[in-house]
Structures are given as C-alpha cells and as structure tokens.
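Lab notebook: predicted structure, single chain.

Context: the supervisor wants predicted structures on file for every construct in the current expression panel, including those that have not yet been purified. This is the next one on the list. No modifications to the sequence; it matches the entry in the shared construct table.
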Amino acid sequence: MRGKLTQPTAAAVGAATTSRLTTAAPCSAARSCSTAHSVGGSGPLTDANRSRRDGAANQALNTVNGDVFRWRRMWDVIATDLGVATGPYPGHARSLAEEMIGEDERWDAIVERHGLKPTKLTELASWWHTDGDLGREVQTFADMTKSRSLGFYGFRNTRRTFLGLFDRLRAERIIP
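Prediction complete. Output recorded below exactly as produced.
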C-alpha cells in the first residue's frame, strides 16, 4: 500500500485514467505515416502506434488498451496500489458525479496533509464522463478491427498502465 486516499477519491483517480480519445493524424512530410494520438495511457507512443497504410490519416478511431480485463478484478489492483479497501458492489451502478459532490474540502485537506501540488479535485477526473464509462449495465468489449485494418497494432497492459500512471502522479506530487 503506497498511498492513503479516501474511497471516493481513489475511485476518482482510478476512473480518471480509463477514458481515451484517439485520432489518426498524418506524420510529417518526411514520413508518410499516420500516428494514433492517445489522451490517457502511460508512456510515449511508439512505432506500434503508427501506420503507414493508405487511408489511415484523419480517421476517428475508438481505442482501448488492447488487452481484455474485467473491472471487478481491476478494482482490487487499483485499491491495493492506492492503499484503500474496495467496497461491496451494491448490485447497480453508482454515480461518481453524485458521490463526489462536497468532496473538494476533503481533497484539499489530503493535498495539504501530504504536501501535494495544489490541485483541484475536478482536475483529476471528469465525473460525468467516468459515470458514462463505468455506469454501463452491460459488459463492453471494444472492437479494434478498424484500427488493426489501418495498421495500428500497438497495445498497452491495462494493469501496468494504471500502476504506471499512479507512480507518475506520485512522483509529480499530485497524489500521496
């Protein structure tokens, strides 16, 4: 257990890393390739995130890390790393946007107590977006066929992505 966060805050930090927006953009004139630019994730983009295929530029792509995981198992990994216990599943999705109402002062106290970089809780995650990602009532399996057919073969290990992000946020003094 590395950090000490309240459960709502830990859930927020974990959930903040789940969203991705990816677009395929053309490379420089010197290289005829397209690069998938990802918001979120961990580490630099590599050649695995580039395509030299015709038609790959200027495409909107949905993307996922590329591995398969279930949130019910991932929450234990995230909670352990953040130093909190997971709560019981109430049998339905709960709104993080609603749970985070009024938590600003608690976060400010955590920032002060641990000497963290002054950061507003709302800068860590978009609660409504997180609710949209995590509040689905059905299992979601993303289809990467379009991305693969355009030559994007890269993937990230979700567990390592979360833990790497938390390590980076600790090093930058954003979370304890």
